[in-house]
Amino acid sequence: MNVGQRLLCTSPAELPAFRIEAMPVPQPGKGQVVVRVEAAAVNPIDVKRAGGYGQRLLTLRGAGRFPLVLGNDIAGVVEAVGPAVTSWRPGDRVFGLVPTGKNGAYATHVAVDARWLRPFVAGHDAHALTAFPYTFTTLWQSLRKAGISEANARGCEVLVHGASGGLGRLAIQLLRRWGAIVTAICATQNVEVCKSLGATGVWDRKRQPLSGLPQCYDAALNFGAWQDEETLIAALKPGALGMATTVHPLLPNFDKHGWVGGAWRTRRDFQRVRALATAKGARYGWVVFKPEEEALDALHRLLSEGALKLPVGIAVPFANARQAFDHVAWQRPGRALLLPPVVCRR
Ligand SMILES: NC(=O)c1ccc[n+]([C@@H]2O[C@H](COP(=O)([O-])OP(=O)(O)OC[C@H]3O[C@@H](n4cnc5c(N)ncnc54)[C@H](OP(=O)(O)O)[C@@H]3O)[C@@H](O)[C@H]2O)c1
């Protein structure tokens, strides 16, 4: 038997506990590819899930019960392809998405649907590429929910909350490329980075309350904090395109209030806030990440054109996973990566 390894998050805790475990190298099923993973990313959702966040609802995807293999982003080399896969061959270098489920990205080998992979981009290595897929796909879905596209973005005033984070940085770069005028909301220490990425205006949330924002925006993206949702909607102008948020209470509602209470509160929260957006004529949506081919195609194209940057702040082996999780939890600059051990095949 060929033996690989995976990183298990053993139980929900504020200080995540990990164990490295041997596992059989997976066989690719129909439409699947087995990738030997060179790097996997740690996103804020992994840190939250390591603390027990989202357990109830994610159980529906087989992703709620500990021990968990976390992670949604990979870059590496194709080792084997399953029946009906024509797009990849062993030896191809790829990066892409692992859907949220029972088996995440933190393993030496991952079996993944061939549709969620894209070829390496010239000038980028595994580390650089792994930082993008989950975050870019979520951004792509956020823009669609907010009604913003390449076709209509030019000249639009877009407010981005959480602009200095991964989603926010990609939003600034893409929206600027599409000709939108971006106002970034961030903390004092991140003002310069938001400007350098192309934000026209920056609102320092530590120095100026968001309630002072002018009501002039065509669209808003909330990647910062749910408690600011209503204030951001208030900043939309009448007839605005829309607003999307990734920091909604869907998962915590079910964690805290159970199936019935969670469903009831989620409906109530969503409808209350959507009504505020609708009163402005704007569309409104909550984003729930899911793999998407269109987003991956767009990501590949934009990376090939050198249009996106997302620096890596730390890359550590599985044995030092806590360091990478702390890096994300403390919002240190740059994305965090985990590097699986290199295993010998027998
Ligand atoms: N729903 C989904 O499917 C989905 C998918 C991806 C991500 N997300 C969530 O979306 C959020 C952003 O993701 P990300 O990868 O961009 O995270 P990130 O890299 O950690 O960036 C988040 C940014 O939000 C700002 N922020 C932090 N705490 C804040 C607060 N209390 N009030 C206002 N702003 C605050 C910080 O910038 P400043 O301090 O400079 O303001 C930080 O840089 C995370 O919460 C993540 O879990 C959800």
From TrEMBL:
Pfam families: ADH_N, ADH_zinc_N_2. SUPFAM superfamilies: GroES-like, NAD(P)-binding Rossmann-fold domains. One of its GO terms (molecular function) is oxidoreductase activity. InterPro entries: ADH-like_N, ER, GroES-like_sf, NAD(P)-bd_dom_sf, YIM1/Zinc_Alcohol_DH_Fams. Residues 13-338 form the Enoyl reductase (ER) domain. PANTHER family: ALCOHOL DEHYDROGENASE RELATED (PTHR11695), RETICULON-4-INTERACTING PROTEIN 1, MITOCHONDRIAL (PTHR11695:SF294). This is Enoyl reductase (ER) domain-containing protein.
